[in-house]
Amino acid sequence: MRGRIPEDVLLQVRERANIVEVVGAHVGLRRVGRNHVGLCPFHAEKTPSFTVNEDRGIFHCFGCGAGGNVFSFLTRLEALPFPEIVERLARRYGVTLPERDEDDPALRQREGLFRLNEQAARFFQRVLWDSTAAAPARAYLEERGIGREVSERFLLGYAPAGSDVLVRKLRAGGRFLESAVQLGLVAERRDKGGHYDRFRARLMFPITDSSGRVVGFGSRSVPGTPSAGGDLPKYINSPETPLYRKGAHLYGLALARDAIRRADRALVVEGYFDVLALAQAGIGHVVASLGTALTLAQLQVLKRFTRNVIAFFDGDAAGQAAAEKSLPTFLEAGLWGHAAFLPAGDDPDTFVRREGQDAALALLARATPLLEFYLDRAVVPTSTPAERAQVAQRVAGWLGKIGDPFEYDITVRRAAEHLGLGEEMLRRQPVRAAGRPATPATTKAPGPEALLVELMLANPAAIARVDAGDGVALFTDPLFRSLADEIVATARRGDPVDPATLLSRLDDATAARIAGRLLEDTTTDGDGRDVTLTKLVDDCLAKLRADATLPVRQALLRRIRVAEMDGDVAAVEEAQRELEQVKRSAAR
Predict the structure, then answer these.
(1) 496-522 pLDDT, tens per residue?
(2) What CA–CA distance (Å, rounded) separates 292 from 290?
(3) CATH of domain 105-237
(4) Mean of per-residue pLDDT scores for the chain
(5) pLDDT tens digits, 39-87
(6) What does the DSSP 8-state code read for residue 439?
(7) Quick one: CATH architecture of 253-376?
(8) Dist. CA 107–CA 397, nearest whole Å
(9) How far apart are CA 117 and CA 175, in angstroms?
(10) What is residue 26's DSSP assignment?
């Protein structure tokens, strides 16, 4: 991670990174006219609606609305922080980035912790496959049906039985034990001083972030070793550390994310062996919640890759209650949650090992939408009006947590249909979530300043018309004014305007909308556009002038009212003349 990357360096990286080449590594593209088209990697589709324009350095999907430049494509695809995307592209295309700030102790410490976790993971891996002491762990994996290829893919390891094997390894390598204590790899002895290994005689499961960096560890006792039996816990995980927060990570996500995108759905299980068994059976779009109920943070991470999530639950009463309890969290995350119920006594691991891949996929195909599952249980034909009203109020409170207005609208319709109520009954509930009314705000069309920037980026004629009308001076939003000023100044110099660079300064939604307009412009022809363009630009400028003169017009109207009350005809006529002059000026 670096500090702020200078604008000129970002421009250099973006100019060298060929967007068709970068996108083409993930999407099958074919050339159509001036564009390249393919199937969108961000949503499931059968007809290509994903368009890339090499000259402008932008992409847009006319199906789901995603759009932007090469940075936003990789940021969305890889779900990595922006600086990491820039660093990756810089390395690939030979751009030298400024040296990281070596005076930042927090940055140095965090990077050091990541390195220490990686070194510990490699140590545990070597022990698992090379040490005779790890034979019980290898036998246990074989007994559970997990082969070496899957074990190595998930970086499985084994912590030796000795009390200070890792401590001595770290000390011999000159590494700071204080950092290992921070990471929960070792602990301090309270009685006689020194340190001891936290994980001993245990199968190790490295937990990574979505980019594959090790943030923590899970572990399980192994039959036939000192970790098994007695009062020792079967599972021990890393404590909260600067890198690992409980409820924020998903086991297996780094390996599953591409499969999740391809399937456009994610399967969520509870434990490590559930993930491993499904992977062994060829089902790769699966992650584990690390032994806890799914949290909002975990679902928000999954939402980067898909909106369709199927969670496994036990088929008994406790499992059904757990499924019902998870519904509000799914709704708040804006995800279409489904529940797949397992036969009594089974978990995904035992089920897929006994029944195989086809049976597991058939079970998933029968998954029930969580909202429908809850409503079917909560409302039956014999439910009284009072009972239905109680359910409606509870559901309305959950719906109020949905931030996206379109998802809100669709979900309200589904719920109203199941409850046998009019939609307005759910929309009227005065329930607030996080200080926000249950009914979401309607989406607004872009304002005149945003629309003018879109038009200027899409067509040089719009730039000339805005410049001729001194339109930039009418902008009041600092961001859009700076963009408009830069576009006009670039055009005056006779240089081509670079949309991809300007898009990087906008929020994702605005950038995607502008990219869509730009690519629509490259896929249509016709002189009729010039007339429409002129009218759009003139209408936007007229609106900005009207807004700019509003205080003057309001003051003149007040003068007219006062003069009329005083019977001062001359003052009325003078104010009316001034008002007409202001209106003509605004309409020019």
Answers:
(1) 777 777 776 677 677 777 777 666 654
(2) 6
(3) 3.90.980.10
(4) 82
(5) 888 877 778 888 898 877 888 888 888 888 888 888 888 777 788 888 8
(6) S
(7) 3-Layer(aba) Sandwich (3.40)
(8) 42
(9) 12
(10) T
State the Cα–Cα distance between residues 1 and 88, nearest whole angstrom.
11
Instruction: For residue 451, report the phi and psi dihedrals to the nearest 5 degrees.
Output: -65, -40
Which two structure tokens, joined as six digits, stand for 551? 């205080």
123 phi and psi, to 5 degrees? -60, -50
Partner residues linked to 219 by β-bridges? 204, 236
Distance, in Å, from the CA atom of 17 to the CA atom of 20, rounded to the nearest integer, reads 9
CB-CB neighbours of 25 under 10 Å: 10
DSSP for residue 269: E
DSSP 197-266: ESS-SEEEEEEE-TTS-EEEEEEEE-TTSTTSSTT--SEEE--S-SS--TTT--BTHHHHHHHHHHHT-E
Q: Which residue bears the tokens 């070597």?
A: 126
C-beta atoms surrounding 212 within 10 Å: 13
The answer to whether the CB of 287 falls within 8 A of the CB of 294 is no
Residue 433: alpha-carbon gap to chain centroid: 21
Tell me the CATH number for domain 7-92: 3.90.580.10
Six-digit token pair at 261? 């995108």
3-class secondary-structure state, position 207: strand
Task: Answer for the pair 388, 421: CB distance below 8 angstroms, yes or no.
Answer: yes
CA distance 439 to 456: 35
Q: Give me the amino acid identity at 587.
A: A
Encoding tokens for residue 251? 């086991």
Whole-angstrom distance, CA of residue 362 vs CA of residue 457 = 49
Answer for the pair 453, 488: CB distance below 8 angstroms, yes or no.
no
Q: How many CA atoms within 13 Å lie on the side-chain side of 325? A: 11
Classify strands 266-269 and 308-314 as parallel, antiparallel or unpaired: parallel
- Structure tokens, 581: 């002059």
For the chain, the structural domain boundaries read 7-92, 105-237, 253-376, 379-437, 448-578
What is the separation of C-alpha 140 from the centre of its chain, rounded to a whole number of angstroms? Answer: 37
* Phi, psi for 252 (deg, rounded to 5): 90, 5
Other CB atoms within a 10 A radius of the CB of residue 152 amount to 12
